[in-house]
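Hi everyone,

Forwarding the result from last night's run.
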Amino acid sequence: MSKDNGVKSWVGQLGASISSDMAEEIDAFETNIKLRKAGKLDAKIFAEARLRRGAYGQRYDNGRRHDGSKTQELVYPSGDLVKGPETIWDAPGMMRIKSPMGIASNEQLETLADLAEEYSDGILHVTTRQEIQLHFVHIDTTPDIMRRLAAVGITTREACGNSVRNVTSCQYAGGCRTAPFDVTPYAKATTYFLLGHKDIQDFGRKFKISFSGCKTNPCGMAMFHDVGCIAVTKEVGGETKRGFEFYVGGGLGAVPFQAQLLDGFVPEEELLPLCQAVCRVFSRLGERKNRARARLKFVIKKLGIEEFRKVVAEERKIIPEDERWTTYLADLDSTNETPLRPGRPLEQSAIDAIDTPVQEEFASWRKHNIWPQPQTNYVTATVRLPLGDFTSEQVRKLTDITRKYTGNTVRFTIEQNLVVRHVSESDLPDFHEGLVAAGLCSPGASTIADIVACPGTDTCKLGISASRGLAAELEKKFSGGKHEDPEVEALHIKASGCFNSCSQHHVADLGFLGVSRIVDGRRIAHFQFVLGGEWANNGGAYGLAIGAYPSKRIPQVIDRTLAFWKKEREEGEDLKGFVARMGRAKIKKELDDLRKIPSYEEQPDFYTDWGDSREYTIGDLGTGECAGEVVSIVDFGLQDAERRLFEAQLDLEAGKTGAASVAAYKSMLTAAKALIMVFNIDIQEDADRVIADFRTHFHDTGRFHDPFAGAKFANYLLKRYESPPSIEDNDLAAREAIDEAQLFVEAAQGCYQRMQGDI
């Protein structure tokens, strides 16, 4: 039997089917690099071309290590020093590499390992979209990387940019006990049908698609995708027919939207044409000028789901027939995986034969990292990757293990881990022993210790707080089953370094997003604490922030919250239910003292962020423009805006959705008024006057505009002024108003900090 006889060769089909096109595209991209260097290609055009090929810029001043620590000087495996850029062409960047459905073959993994060593820092990073990222890659090397990837059937095309991003799916698909059928061939067909399709080349923003095998588990996270498909079956004429619940318009990001049901049953033969129709509608009706409102969710919000459904149905009627819509249905077995070894049960005698010191480790790993498959005596094993990282050396050891026990493939997960499927139960002790030798045996998959984090300040230009550093600290805190309470153990923690939801913090039990504050002239890293999210039911509920807490106090914030929950919860009450019953005001009161900041003289390390010994800063973002007593007045006004915002959340909790929308709007007006006081302008509560002065002093001048988000947050206030909230607003409108107000108030804090000067 061949050593790669685990999955049929479809994993490499992409390279085989469009290799000439791929080669031509890479050549064209290389030419674009030369033209841009020569000043013969517009910067914006080159940026989009670069992003569509998966090449991102990245932060370079906070080099990261595999253990999550930081250093000002990072050395490549070759011994070359990673330095700050002298020009844009010297800047290290990031390469995002698509892995449709998170699937990668041994050959592909080994190529990625080689590239990580030769062009990067020797680390492969798994993203929450089941992709691989290589950091500290220079733009000049990207064409060579793309060619090496193409040779093993991997593309970076449309990994970034205004395109259909990597199509994700449940990592257990085909080996799941609760799914009605395997969604893998459908996700594969959608991926390759839309890749490079003419109908997706003119989007205003990105477009994300996911496939889930069932509704109740956190599989494909259909509820926060532009298109989310959940497998269902239906009896038609005495025959069981496959299809999908088809959701549209979901998204996290700065302002999360829950997807809405477009169709309760889309037959399998209609899947691709319906996806195409939705893409065409988005391309035609999506926002172009204002990127902050250029996602599909805003098209649906504007039209309403009923009207959107009609528009899509009309679009579907005029699309020319395409044989690719259905030809794949004749070979749905093409993605089936064949186990390498016979499925046999794990006998107790085999467990007893494990060395005594290792037995406890094996039991802990087996408890959470093993998922029984419907195939008799086979399991899926999760390889937990703290911080989503593993090294080139670990990759090679892993492929040795998979070739011996399972075959040819692994799948990356949205929790930044990977899974190995079709492991015979009888092989588990030896399989685990191999993982131990590779340093890949961390237990606690999908527990409170399995923390998801975006790159944050380590490598992301948008990073405000050290999400990876925090995650590393919390991982140490919770690893080893230190929480015996199974309800606590089952919680999920997710940390994002900024207002974007790259770690999906909105749907975590305990979510965090990075912000900053200035206290006594010094900047301090903070995290907004998000409660009320739900990871189950495909991301069934989004949480709201209850306040910002110093980064160094987040472990205490978690301990205090969990202690309060355990003390006051009712029997069988989960954390989400507890938050809903108890109310955010009472929880916030329990945490109020943790907002206090010790003086720099008392505790200088409080003014650093996790994993970084340097004094915290986010860079030189402005010069001081105010001083004196007015500072305290502005601070007071911004605090009052935060109070109003929290009251809006309480109104929403109480079911007063219209009042919540109005209060959220007032919080933005309060924050704007506070900023205007910097100029000693005596204004009243009159909204017209506040807006006029805000436009004059902050919007039109660009003073308010976020260094990375531009005018996006200012426009939230101006939009609300033009179309004020109504006391009749529903829950969805109120949540949007609160999320936008949260971002505006945070932006007001940032604007004021810039005006004081970054210390």
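The chain has five domains: 9-150, 175-335, 348-438, 447-468+479-617, 620-759.

Cheers,
N.
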